[in-house]
Amino acid sequence: MNASLSTDAKDALAREIPTAAHCRAALLGALVTYGAVKGRFHTQRNAVARLFWSLLPDRKAYVIESQPVKRLRGGVDYSIRIPEELLAPMHKPTRRCDRIMEARAAFLAVGSLAAESSGYHLELTPHDAALATRLASLLGALGYRPKRMKRKTRDVLYYKHSDTIVEFLTLVGAHRTVLALEDIRAMRETKNRIHRLVNTEAANLDRSAGAAASQRRLILEISREHGLKALSPALREIAELRLKYPEAALAELGARCEPPISKPTVQSRFSALARHLGRLRGEGEGD
User: Fold this and answer.
1) Do 206 and 125 share a domain, yes or no?
2) Which residues contact 223 (CB under 8 A, 6 or more apart)?
3) 20 DSSP 8-state letter
4) What CATH number has the domain bearing residue 24?
């Protein structure tokens, strides 16, 4: 599921064509800005290539060409010749909706999304530092300033905070991907909660087993030192029950008493047995 997050997000966004002419123009210009290489628009998603083609003023004059990508098994590079009039540098959009279209185009052209074991990760890798600076400024103006780092020769803009990534995807219109991420987050939170409960229960069982073993050693030592018959009826009863049921919980031992007693009362009786053994040891040292 994680491996397909980027492809699913891009395929869904590529089907969302803006209704306003200026938004379509901004989207087309931004796709050229971030996806152009030597006069051609390149992408590895057929849906994105078809979006670019559909936005061209005279799309019948252009064809989508494809060829395998050797470094990516099964990968395909789709490219379309860019009209000369679109190769001029794109002006910075003034309308907020056009800035959103540029952010969408940047994600479609140079973005990637993953849900890693450590959390979500969304990054954008423009072709040069000037484009990275432009995109960082635009995203900051939209309220989502990214972090920036250098990876080999490329500037990478990225987000790692899950809430920010969800907000960014919502901004550019990737609503289905937002739902998919929320499903992943809910599943992870459920698994983590289950793991915590299991670990807590395991720790409780370990403590209970250790306490039961200590109580049994205590009773055996009393038996060797003085015998259990010398104990009061209440202490003898709980001591004999512990020897008979070495792994039983305190509540279970209390339920087996005649009459049944509460867990705190069982604990109190074991404390009394420990004090009794202490007195026996003290008498032995005096002799």
Assistant:
1) no
2) 239
3) S
4) 3.10.28.10
Q: Dihedral sign, CA of 147, 128, 165, 22?
A: positive
Q: Is there a cis peptide before residue 259, judged by omega within 30 degrees of 0?
A: yes
CA torsion, points 24, 26, 29, 35, in degrees to nearest 10?
A: -90
Confidence tier at 283 by pLDDT (50, 70, 90) = low
208 neighbors 267 (Cβ within 8 angstroms): no
Element at 53 (helix H, strand E)? helix 46-55
What are the tokens at 85? Answer: 């009039």
Report if residue 281 sits inside a domain. Answer: yes
- Expressed as residue numbers, the domain containing 221 is 199-286
Q: Name the least confident of 25-29, 69-73, 249-253.
A: 69-73
Q: Looking at the structure, tell me whether residues 16 and 136 fall in a common domain.
A: yes
Kindly report the average pLDDT of the chain as a whole number. 88
State the amino acid at position 59 in one-letter form: R
Q: What angle do CA 239, 225, 287 make, to 5 degrees?
A: 145
Select the more confidently predicted residue: 278 or 119: 278
Give the pairing type, strands 119-124 and 154-159. Answer: antiparallel
The larger pLDDT score, comparing residue 224 to residue 71, is at: 224
Residue 249 CB: number of other CB atoms within 10 A? 17
